[in-house]
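TASK: fixed-backbone design
INPUT:
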């Protein structure tokens, strides 16, 4: 499960690369070869130069159950809980709650299933997509006040606001006939479709992936990954295009896989034998990063933008030698050169409690990461999830 707690991180991402891994530029888009069988053991100290923990306050009894999405924009932190409290929370950078949008219902400005959101800084709006009502709802980004809502006739999965409209990912839901449906819709601001891309596999119709982060932004360029293929896409200057192919060789899913494996349970079981579900693609000044799944593990790939080098590891091969504490398997956002994660407070309380029962480990943790020990004293097991900011060392 993607939301399993992994101490130590399942963390860090970052990775080692074999001598046989290389980049090919003979085709129209760059191809990066990766062998899922060749991951390396990595110390987190060789990757992370700084770590910071941030508590999200519960002012007014606002308790977050499970974080679906986090955005960091305009000196604010936006947190969506799409599973339990069904609300969006807006914090300042110190973790103090500024306001929340928790308008549960079916009326104007209300939502039943807040599946995704974005923040439009140009128009000072928070945009929430309600799956239950098939509508986009607009709120003032300064105070959360309702502005308007627009109906969208198709059930989408994820979206990204762009200046001229929206990028909309359908996740194998047909919008028209099979011959006239695509996974990526590019619309204007009134949701008129201007362009379509990424064909839907007929054998994947209504086969919905449980999606992690698949839209990201760097220097005004939008990046996107679809869980059903091995391509990194970008949207820039009104163009949606392929920019990179991740080549897993014989560990890629055969083209006939979904046609031959019609049983969903069988599919899920056999998927683990192949590299699949590329996600969390992030660009920074010095590096790019993404995750993928292989044999029930999350593998992490970190490529330098300055030098011809790459790290390739997995959640089971990351050694937490700096006392990071419990971590989720995937980062949920990036800010500059810092990957952002979240964790449940109860996991940290239990982690510290277990360390205290083992004298040598407790002494070691206090020495390695006194900031984590101090942070744990500020929280209760029933508090909101907290955020973890891990700055990537450019010299890795």
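OUTPUT:
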């Amino acid at each position: 499960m993607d939301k399993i707690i992994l101490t130590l991180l399942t963390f860090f991402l970052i990775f080692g690369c074999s001598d046989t891994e290389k980049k090919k530029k003979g085709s129209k888009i760059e191809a990066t070869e990766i062998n899922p069988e060749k991951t390396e053991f990595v110390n987190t100290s060789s990757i992370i130069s700084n770590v910071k923990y941030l508590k999200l306050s519960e002012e007014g009894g606002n308790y977050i159950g499970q974080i679906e999405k986090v955005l960091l924009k305009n000196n604010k932190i936006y947190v969506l809980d799409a599973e339990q409290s069904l609300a969006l929370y807006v914090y300042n950078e110190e973790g103090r709650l500024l306001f929340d949008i928790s308008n549960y219902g079916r009326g104007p400005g209300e939502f039943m299933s807040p599946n995704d959101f974005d923040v439009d800084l140009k128009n000072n709006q928070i945009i929430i997509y309600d799956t239950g009502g098939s509508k986009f709802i607009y709120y003032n980004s300064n105070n959360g006040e309702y502005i308007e809502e627009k109906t969208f006739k198709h059930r989408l999965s994820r979206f990204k606001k762009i200046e001229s409209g929206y990028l909309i990912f359908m996740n194998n839901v047909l919008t028209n006939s099979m011959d006239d449906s695509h996974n990526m819709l590019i619309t204007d601001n009134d949701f008129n479709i201007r362009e379509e891309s990424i064909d839907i596999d007929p054998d994947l119709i209504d086969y919905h992936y449980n999606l992690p982060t698949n839209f990201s932004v760097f220097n005004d360029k939008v990046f996107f990954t679809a869980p059903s293929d091995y391509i990194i896409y970008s949207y820039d200057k009104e163009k949606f295009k392929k920019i990179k192919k991740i080549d897993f060789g014989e560990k890629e899913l055969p083209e006939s896989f979904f046609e031959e494996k019609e049983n969903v349970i069988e599919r899920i079981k056999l998927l683990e034998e192949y590299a699949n579900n590329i996600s969390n693609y992030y660009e920074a000044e010095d590096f790019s990063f993404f995750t993928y799944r292989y044999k029930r593990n999350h593998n992490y790939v970190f490529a330098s933008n300055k030098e011809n080098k790459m790290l390739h590891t997995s959640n089971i091969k990351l050694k937490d030698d700096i006392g990071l504490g419990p971590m989720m398997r995937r980062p949920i956002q990036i800010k500059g050169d810092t990957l952002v994660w979240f964790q449940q407070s109860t996991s940290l309380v239990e982690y510290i409690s277990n360390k205290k029962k083992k004298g040598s480990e407790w002494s070691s943790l206090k020495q390695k990461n006194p900031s984590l020990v101090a942070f744990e004293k500020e929280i209760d097991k029933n508090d909101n999830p907290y955020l973890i900011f891990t700055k990537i060392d450019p010299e890795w």
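COMMENT: Residues 345-356 form the longest helix (12 residues).
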